[in-house]
Write a structure and sequence with these properties.
The chain has helices spanning 3-23, 27-51, 53-92, 97-106, 111-168, 173-211, 217-227, 236-248, 252-282, 286-300, 304-341, 346-356. It has a domain at 27-168. The chain is elongated, with a radius of gyration of 28 Å. 87% of the residues lie in helices and 0% in strands. Pfam families: AI-2E_transport.
Length: 357
């Protein structure tokens, strides 16, 4: 190894380590940006020939931002409205505090003690909480800005990035194509599959809630969809408490309807849809999906819901590719012995080795 190559290796290692340190604080937003750009890529490929690469990327970023912010705005608006309504009802005395206490006690909560403790701590920690809130908002705004720029430039310059990756990766074209095809299959199945299952759960929950006359159906659809991204938790976190609430509110028939629909339809749809959609398209074991999702959340935050299963599944693909690539080399190692036994020349052995590699 020449002195120049050693210097380049050391410099590259130092710069890569610095780059990892720079990206680490916003890694979750970068990963989300990569996934969102991947989902939007087919639409971009259809739209770009008509209006151009960069205008198409700008339009898709704007539309996706509005699509994400709209449900969040609905949830915040409904929550604020319900809090104001509850406050007015308590002030007018139209809400029986005993009923609320009974519901809280059913969940193991001493409502009066919690309210008293909250009141005492309110003045002491109010300023600190406000400062923490602004600090958290700043971090989120910076992260969202990074996410939007990642999506935009991956859409606008994604082809150049793929071409550069193909040049620097020391693999032949056939192997690169196969790995890219497998990664595409896994990513599409995991990302689109999980989102599709969550959306089905949200719609089903909204249907049964609307059937029994529960208000703010859109709010519950959004909340259930978000929670359904978590396996083994999902929609049951929404419809089970609602069942208990309806029963204790004197609506046993409605409670029975929600419980029966949630058990027989919503929960069972999770057991069938998630393996069928995500496992079939991505060909990922449901066990790998569960481990990947929860391990991914611990490692990457919310983005780990999708990144975790993709990493585990693609790791298996890389191992299989490594074995397949090494097999010809292993065969060529046995060939020289056989050739020498037959009395072949060294030149023939070298040509066989070259062909095997």
């Amino acid at each position: 190894m020449t002195l120049q190559r050693r210097f380049l290796l050391v410099a590259t290692a130092v710069v890569v380590a610095a780059a990892v340190a720079v990206v680490a604080p916003v890694a979750q937003y970068v990963l989300f940006g990569v996934l969102l750009a991947y989902v939007l890529r087919p639409v971009h490929d259809r739209l770009a020939p008509s209006i151009g690469e960069r205008p198409s990327a700008a339009v898709l970023v704007s539309v996706s931002t509005a699509t994400v912010l709209a449900p969040i705005a609905v949830v915040i608006a409904v929550a604020l409205r319900e809090l104001l309504r509850l406050r007015a009802a308590l002030a007018e005395g139209t809400v029986e505090l005993e009923t609320v206490e009974l519901l809280a006690a059913a969940g193991g909560i001493d409502l009066r003690a919690e309210l008293d403790q909250l009141t005492r701590r309110g003045l002491e920690s109010g300023l600190g909480r406000v400062l923490d809130l602004f600090g958290g908002l700043t971090e989120v705004l910076v992260g969202l800005t990074v996410l939007l720029f990642v999506v935009y430039y991956l859409l606008a310059d994604g082809d150049r990035l793929l071409a550069w990756t193909g040049r620097v990766i020391p693999l032949d074209g056939e192997t690169q194509t196969a790995l890219r095809r497998d990664l595409d299959r896994i990513t599409w199945g995991v990302v689109v599959g999980n989102i599709a299952v969550a959306a089905v759960h949200g719609v089903l929950t909204g249907l049964v809630f609307g059937l029994v006359g529960i208000s703010n159906v859109v709010f519950w659809v959004v909340v259930t969809t978000l929670l359904s991204l978590l396996p083994l938790i999902g929609a049951s976190v929404v419809w089970l408490p609602m069942t208990a609430f309806l029963f204790m509110a004197g609506r046993p028939v409605d409670a029975a309807v929600v419980f029966a629909f949630g058990t027989a339809v919503i929960s069972l749809s999770d057991n069938y849809l998630r393996p069928v959609i995500t496992g079939h398209e991505a060909r990922v074991s449901p066990g790998v999906m569960v481990v990947g999702i929860f391990g991914g959340v611990l490692a990457f935050g919310f983005a780990g819901l999708f990144v975790g299963p993709i990493v585990l599944a693609f790791a298996a693909v890389l191992v299989e590719t490594l074995v397949e690539v090494d097999e010809p080399a292993g065969a060529s190692q046995e060939t020289p012995g056989a050739v020498e036994a037959d009395g072949e020349t060294d030149g023939d052995v070298e040509s066989i080795d070259d062909g095997g590699v």
